[in-house]
Amino acid sequence: MKDLSGVTLGSYRLVEKIGKGAVSVVYKAYQPSLERWVAVKVLDPVYVGQDQQFIARFRREAKAVAALRHPNILIVYDCGEQDGLEYIAMEYVAGGTLKERLTGTPFPWKRAVSLSIGVGQALAFAHCQGIVHRDVKPGNVLLPTENWPLLSDFGLAKLRHTGHSLTDPGMSLGTPAYISPEQALGAEVDHRTDIYALGVMLFEMVTGQVPFQAAGTFNMLLKHISEPPPSLRSLAPEVPEALERIVLRALAKEPEERYQNMADMVADMEALGPFSIVTQPAEATEQQQDRFTAELRDLRPLLRGPHFIIVGTGVPVPIPRQDEVVIGRSDPATNTMVDVDLTSVGGVSSGVSRQHARLVFAHNTWTIEDLNSTNGTCLNDTPMRPFEPQPLRDGDQVKLAQMVLIFHTGETD
Predict the structure, then answer these.
(1) What's the CATH class of domain 98-270?
(2) Each residue of 288-326: b (16+ CB within 10 Å) or e?
(3) Would you state the pLDDT for residue 286?
(4) What is the gyration radius of the CA atoms in the chain, in angstroms?
(5) Alpha-carbon distance 366 to 410, whole Å?
(6) What is the residue-averaged pLDDT of the chain?
(7) Sign of torsion over alpha carbons 93, 99, 100, 105
């Protein structure tokens, strides 16, 4: 499939490749109408061809997945077709995947369980909606932060053609290292195949390795079908026996011997807690900042007019062109309305006040002042005194409580 960077599909301008699968390519894209980054998955036309049944199934499943709303499920915005290219537009996450964190070094077991709980809750919710993932793996778990997993690619694995032999490429089996025995046998599968895959992921996070390793796909499938998993505590002696029992039950060869629903597995993992929040290493913070700097450099030329850009997510927030602009959180119930409303982009959890700060535009210059907010305002790491305006320049960093923003005038270089 040729590189589509620079092409516009629907309302999405494809910027660069960020991922590739067996039947699709994922691009980072910009949606000018809503001024946001998105991820656009484009099906390879060579694979799809003129298979109208496949295309109809793809669209139907995309719509079903788009209806899922859960804190641990990646949001699907849209699907469409243009010039023979089928695509899905999804939430863009800059933090990378769990796969990139699994370098062979075991996670602290509490962190592994905490991440698994988030993924398990997402799967339990989807299962209640009649959707089975069938390709649960670290590469399909995105991490907006180090401890917040988002499960992606819901429903897409089961859209692939069936009826192939075990060794056929592109068969509807999922990923060999995480495949359930019934998938490996080509049998009918249900939600319990996702339970098995989550057990494999939990095993890998705790020990630094998947339970079954083999040269070649066929040998890997045979191990899932017939070989018992190694002892978890022999590889990670520090984990509690209760955690080993959870993993072994999830990895049972027969679906009837596993957890019969994901909620029960999640409940058993939660019983091992409470779990402390893992502190992000300094080098990871630096890498995140470098990544944001690169994204900011890409985003700024696309923006027209003044904006704030939220650090960490890259979400652009337009600033209305008027003499005075109040920043905070709107609340129709109390008739508190602001010009720049940060409610839907993390303002509540970040501690932003309802009327937090004010921008003033005069003599072609912006100033900012704190409106005696509860948690304060900083300009370039310097705390501001309430009601004392300070000049605001392109590229300045504004911190409203815990929310950090970059100011952009919208002027092109």
Answers:
(1) mainly alpha
(2) beeebeebbeebbeebeebbbbbbbbbbbbebeeeeebb
(3) 43
(4) 24
(5) 12
(6) 84
(7) positive
Query: Strands of 340-341's sheet, edge to edge?
Result: 340-341, 324-328, 355-362, 365-370, 390-392
pLDDT in tens, 267-290: 999 999 776 433 333 333 444 444
Number of H helices, E strands in the chain: 11, 19
Identify the pLDDT of residue 174.
Answer: 64
122-141 pLDDT, tens digit per residue, is 999 888 888 889 889 999 99
CATH number of 8-91: 3.30.200.20
- In this predicted structure, what is the pLDDT of residue 71? 83
pLDDT at 206: 97
What distance lies between CA 320 and its chain's CA centroid? Answer: 30
How many Å apart are CA 39 and CA 143, to the nearest integer?
Answer: 14
- Which is it for strands 24-31 and 8-9: parallel, antiparallel or unpaired? unpaired
pLDDT-flagged residues of the chain (< 70): 48-50, 155-174, 275-303, 313, 331-335, 411-413
Q: What distances in angstroms separate CA 259 from CA 110, 210, 230, 313, one per listed residue?
A: 21, 20, 19, 36
Q: What is the pTM of this model?
A: 0.65
**What is the number of alpha carbons within 13 Å of residue 180 lying toward its C-beta?**
31
Domains 98-270 and 282-408 share a fold: no
Beta bridge pairs of residue 307:
318, 408
Q: Where are the domains of the chain?
A: 8-91, 98-270, 282-408
Among the listed residues 405, 108, 126, the one whose alpha carbon sits nearest the alpha carbon of residue 272: 108
Q: Tens of pLDDT along 72-95? A: 889 889 989 999 899 999 988 887
Positions marked active-site: 135
What is the 8-class DSSP label of residue 84?
T
CATH code given to domain 282-408: 2.60.200.20
Residue 311 contacts residue 292 (beta carbons within 8 Å): yes
Q: What is the pLDDT of residue 366?
A: 95
Contacting residues for 263 by C-beta, under 8 A, at least 6 apart: 124
